[in-house]
Amino acid sequence: MNRSRTNLAVGFFVALGMAAVVFMALKVGNLASFDSSEGYQLEARFDNIGGLKVRAPVKSAGVVVGRVEAIYLDGETYEGVVQIRIRPQYRFSNDTIASILTSGLLGEQYLSLEAGGDPQYLNDGGRFTKTQSAMVLEKLIAQFLYSKASEGSGDRK
Amino acid sequence: MMNVLDLIEGLGASITGSLKRLGLLARFFINLLRVIAPMLKRVDLHIKQIYFVGVRSLAITIVSGLFVGMVLAVQGYEVLQRFGSVESLGSLVALSLVRELGPVVAALLFAGRAGSAMTAEIGLMVATEQIAAMDMMAVNPMARVIAPRFVASIIALPILAMIFSTAGIIGSYMVGVELIGIDSGAFWSQMRVSVDFRVDVLNGLYKAIVFGIAVGLLSVFEGYYSAPTAEGVSSATTRTVVISSLTILVLDFVLTVLMFRGLN
Q1: DSSP state string for B140-162
Q2: What domain range is A133 assigned to?
Q3: A17·B162 Cβ contact <8 A
């Protein structure tokens, strides 16, 4: 075995391994798309967060602008508190509406931000004043049945 | 009455036997750790071993990875189309490969392909008294023979695991996107949404490093303490593959519980 050929093969092998890690980082994983230490933090409170999970995307107009960092329950108000981190280049006005939506019928839940018209911007640690809770299917069906029932009784009168 | 006592004695003997073996392994590991650091200067020895255990395992790893990825794509598609969410195929395949199958299957292949070869080689060196001869010449066989093989498997296995996962993802892309016809944009974007580099890829890499330590240690240990006969070498080789495979699977469970328990 010629040693320089061995060295060549091992060098090639290690380079291939590095290429695989880079492939994982850039193409498979989301390392390049968002660094979790960057950006500023905001907070939104919901009556019901549904199935929102940590690391879920935060989208505005469908574009990912940040990620959910932490979710916990406020023990006094019994509201679900969602902390999110927004990329530094995006700013949102004070009256931005934060709502929890689902991508597709069975897709994962994400936090949607609809920008308002207030000239004041939310700063690091700020809180959304207008939020819309996650849609719970059972409640929705109950509401639908209730409205159908009241519609039916209205017709009879 | 005697029969029962014989049975209990046999049980006791097998327990003491395996405990002795475990103690021997622990002492062997500590002796090995002592000689690793000064040996690292001998880069050429390590490169030669990485060539034997890593580069020579490349073909089997890539081919297996491709086929595992292809099968995952076909099976995943069958299930996902019932829920109308075939776009999630990318994330299903990537998560299962990066978190579990990449490190585990690469380590199992490594134990069969490289671990058994290391055991047989060292076992034959013991049987032909080459190890004893080295000792006579004041060359520490632990440092000269055992340590480079152990270090090489710790270096080679993580690389092989990453290559396995990459090959698997490429294989699932070929079947899922090119053959079945899932949208390529959805395939990659779903994958990127669900795979986190730090959580999923790096934990997979740590798993592979732990498996590398386990397989490397067991392979050189079984070889070093194999009976110096043809039969001894063959049974040591078998033990390496069997014990390594079981250790990999048990360690995988323990590591998975530790790593992914608090994730959601």
Answers
A1: -HIIIIIHHHHHHHHHHHHHHHH
A2: 40-142
A3: yes
ipTM of the complex: 0.78
Q: Which two tokens stand for residue A154?
A: 């209205």
| Residues ≥6 apart with Cβ < 8 Å to A145 | none
Length of chain B counted residue by residue: 264
Q: Does residue A90 share a domain with residue A105?
A: yes
CA distance B71 to B180: 12
Choice between B229 and A57, residue whose per-residue pLDDT is larger: B229
Among candidate residues B124, B155, B122, B111, the one with its CA nearest the CA of residue B243: B111
Structural tokens at position B235 = 């049974």
Across the beta sheet with A40-46, what order do the strands follow? A126-127, A40-46, A80-86, A63-73, A57-60, A109-114, A97-102, A130-132
Query: If residue A113 lies in a helix (H) or strand (E), which one and from where to where?
Result: strand A109-114
Higher pLDDT, B184 or B177: B177
Domain boundaries, position B190: 43-255
Q: What pLDDT is stored for residue A65 in this prediction?
A: 86
Sign of CA dihedral A116, A121, A123, A127: negative
For residues B96 and B109, give the distance between their C-alpha atoms in angstroms, rounded to a whole number. Answer: 17
* B59 contacts on A by Cβ (under 8 Å): none
CA distance A117 to chain B (A): 30
